[in-house]
Recover the amino acids of this structure.
């Protein structure tokens, strides 16, 4: 099978290797689509993975083409996506099904081989099945969609509330769709005018691109001067977090979601916002996969994909083949031409 092996930072190589076989409790997935996460960019280009070589990619979906001896053959040829976190099932976090907080987890695409390949063997426990007519590209984006839903759920969002989302990239646009589904009012913020314009073309009306002061004024104008009920920081920059604290209403909630680009600092004045406004500051990490919860994040995502309630395919601006190797990463990090993109995937169809 073809794979993209990361042999060193900046060295993503197309190779041939034998396809894996499904062990007793596993299934073999023929991958149809694999998304490139924002976290994959530094992973491939600068920081590397936990060991070399590694097949990168944790956003993927495909068809079950073989099953292990303990798995029923009725699952053959089903369409599915994969929860990419592999918990140890022994720690106290796993006991309460908070797998994202597992103390000793493994992870497809960074700690072990992932989805930039034609086939992958995965534990049956990690498989999330979809309808027979579900779109593979949308299923490949179930993981970031579940991350976005998890962030919104952390805020305890309610119908009628205003949610300001800082960062109009793929996850920000997914969160905005979830706000709509939950009956709220999304406001999208980004410093890149092109992303703001895309969000408008995608169907959102309250969208702003500009500096921190203007953003705060914009949000207050949209909320009759009170501020947003909820602000979600999805960029990983300290300035955006500060803006969230100024733009949220008294007793509002702020969710920190974005992976930090650098050290996060708050000014003395901004810290007072937390105290005087009695803001609730929450963290969001990964997504919820509780098996005892019928509407866990992944089941909610798949249900909405199956029913056509959420548009993930429309976020894809670029498609590459595995044969293209590192080219999509070079495109996304091209500082000279500065190309515009939203979601980039490898398509194996």
């Amino acid at each position: 099978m073809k794979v993209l092996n990361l042999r060193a930072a900046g060295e993503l190589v197309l190779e041939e290797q034998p396809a894996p076989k499904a062990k007793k409790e596993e299934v073999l997935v023929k991958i149809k689509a694999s998304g490139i996460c924002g976290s994959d960019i530094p992973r491939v280009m600068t920081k590397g993975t936990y060991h070399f070589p590694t097949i990168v990619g944790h956003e993927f979906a495909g068809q079950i083409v073989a099953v292990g001896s303990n798995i029923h053959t009725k699952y053959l040829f089903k369409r599915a996506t994969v929860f990419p976190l592999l918990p140890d099932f022994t720690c106290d976090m796993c006991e309460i099904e908070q797998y994202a907080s597992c103390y000793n987890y493994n992870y497809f695409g960074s700690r072990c081989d992932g989805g930039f390949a034609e086939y992958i063997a995965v534990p049956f426990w990690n498989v999330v099945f979809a309808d027979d007519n579900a779109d593979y590209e949308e299923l490949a984006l179930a993981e970031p969609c579940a991350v976005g839903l998890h962030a919104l759920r952390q805020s305890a969002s309610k119908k009628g509330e205003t949610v300001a989302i800082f960062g109009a990239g793929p996850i920000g646009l997914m969160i905005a769709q979830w706000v709509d589904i939950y009956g709220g009012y999304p406001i999208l913020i980004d410093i890149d005018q092109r992303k703001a314009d895309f969000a408008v073309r995608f169907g959102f009306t309250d969208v702003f691109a500009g500096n921190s002061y203007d953003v705060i004024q914009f949000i207050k104008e949209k909320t009759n001067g009170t501020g947003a009920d909820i602000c979600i920081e999805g960029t990983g920059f300290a300035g955006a977090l500060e803006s969230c604290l100024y733009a949220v209403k008294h007793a509002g909630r702020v969710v920190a979601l974005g992976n930090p680009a650098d050290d996060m600092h708050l000014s003395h004045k901004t810290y007072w916002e937390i105290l005087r406004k009695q803001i609730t500051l929450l963290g969001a990490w990964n997504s919820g996969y509780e098996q005892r919860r019928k509407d866990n994040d992944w089941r909610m995502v798949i249900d909405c994909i199956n029913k056509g309630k959420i548009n993930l395919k429309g976020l894809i601006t670029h498609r590459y083949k595995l044969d293209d190797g590192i080219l999509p990463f070079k495109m996304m990090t091209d500082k000279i031409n500065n190309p515009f993109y939203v979601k980039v995937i490898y398509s194996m169809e």
Remarks:
- Residues 142-154 form the longest helix (13 residues).
- The mean pLDDT is 97.
- The chain has eleven helices and 18 strands.
